[in-house]
Amino acid sequence: MSIEVKVPALGESVTEATIGEWLKQPGEAVAMDEPIASLETDKVAVEVPSPVAGVMGEHKVKLGETVSVGAVIATIEDGVPAAGAEPVARREAPQPEAEKAPGPSEPVDSTLTMSPAVRRAVLEAGVDPTTIRGSGKDGRLTKEDVLSAAKAKRDGAPAPAVSTPAPSPAPAQSGERRTERVKMTRLRQTIARRLKSAQEEAALLTTFNDCDMSAVIAAREHYKELFATKHGIKLGFMSFFAKAAVLALKDVPAANAQIEGDEIVYHDFVDISVAVSAPNGLVVPVVRDCDKLSFAQIEQAIADYGKKAKDGTLTMADMTGGTFTISNGGVFGSLMSTPIINPPQSAVLGLHRIEDRPVVRDGQVVVRPMMYLALSYDHRLIDGREAVTALKIIKEAIEDPMRILIDL
Q: How many CB atoms sit inside 10 A of residue 263's CB?
């Protein structure tokens, strides 16, 4: 008997996905709830679990095809796997060297495009994905590639060649000019569409200021060990800026509001979307109720989202909502930028790199660690005076963190 595998509900307003990878091939054993495919949606990668235990049947759609929620993508058959197929128990067994492998918190090369299942296999097996030749579409790594490499590592032998290696291009002749055409991922298509839509619909404007980071740097240095000991998390810059943004958004409610039709929707809470770089593009998970969270809770939430972004395990719920966005281009070395708002939000704060610059203090030229701040906003809703005021509040709170403590 065949059991149909259908595309599950993908989250609010998401009706389509793309087949990113088949995690099970026809004839292979499948356990109940074991992922058989990875779908790429507008926002996250989603694994499709098997509804029953059995044998992988037919793939009803091809890699790269778009499917709708509820569509049949494969079948699961009764019986046992064909001869030579690896049993589920062996394929999923913990690796003997797992204790020596790097933990999930250690970064994996983000230049590789890997599904959540492949990424987990890499982390659990402790292998270097850049040394493995992928047999999937466009040379992508599959779970089987990782397991084969892990087995070869345990046995002390070189990793076996994959049975269907991706064709390698012929060497370019001297002076030859080459081009490559790669289809955009669904996530990248959505990012492009939303950013262009924001530019077309909103009246975007950016105001700038600079900020002396001396006080925050000193506070972090003084309390970092005590903070880490008590809360089990490092004290970073983002929690300071999140709390400073709360002060600004409470004083300038328009910066925390959004336009819906001919109405303005004001929020009495602050849910901050934090831009995080993921392997397939930029994502913005939401740290909710920042006005009620402690520094440690904000830092923990951001750390958890960063890990989930690297692992490819962010969910729709993680990125739904948000009333304001903070984007930190400084971690990549950006000196200044004009960030684009994240619709339907009306404002975004851009952070940049910290560098020593000469400034005047009390009539004297001194060197201070300075950062440029940028606040992009929708001028349809936020007046220039309000935008400048909001950014000035953030600047003053960072330069004098006591303002955050006494809500000033």
A: 8
Residue range(s) occupied by CATH 2.40.50.100 in the chain: 1-93
Amino acid at 139: G
Task: Provide the 10 A C-beta neighbour count for residue 362.
Answer: 5
Is the distance from CB of 345 to CB of 171 less than 8 angstroms? no
Spell out the CATH class of 187-405. alpha beta
From the centroid of its chain, how far is CA 380?
A: 30
Tokens (6 digits) for 142? 């599959």
- Which token pair is 395? 């600047």
Beta strand pairing call for 258-260 and 263-265: antiparallel
**From-to residues of CATH 4.10.320.10 in the chain:** 103-165
As annotated, the active-site residues are 379, 383
Q: Phi and psi (nearest 5°) for 102?
A: -65, 145
pLDDT digits (tens, 9 = 90+) for 351-373: 999 999 999 999 999 999 999 99
SS3 (DSSP) at 215:
helix
**Alpha-carbon separation of residue 134 from 4, 110, 186, 280 (angstroms):** 29, 16, 21, 17
204-212 vs 276-278, strand pairing mode: unpaired
Taking every pair of Cα atoms in the chain, the longest distance, rounded to a whole number of angstroms, is 85
Return the closest-CA partner of residue 67 out of 21, 19, 119.
19
The two counts, helices (H) then strands (E), for the chain are 10, 19
Architecture of domain 103-165: Irregular (4.10)
Contact status, residue 289 vs residue 320, Cβ threshold 8 Å: no
**C-beta neighbour count of 276 within 10 angstroms:** 21
Q: Residue 153 is inside which H or E element, if any?
A: helix 143-155
CA dihedral 388, 389, 395, 399 (to 10 degrees): 140
Contact 376, 338 (CB under 8 A): yes
- Note whether 90 and 78 are within 8 A (CB): no
- 43 class by beta-carbon count within 10 Å (0-12 exposed, 13-18 middle, 19+ buried): buried
Cα 307 from Cα 328, distance rounded (Å): 17
DSSP bridge partners of 37 = 22, 48
- What mean pLDDT do residues 126-141 have? 73
Model confidence pLDDT, tens digit, residues 14-68: 778 888 888 889 999 999 888 888 887 766 778 888 999 999 999 998 888 888 8
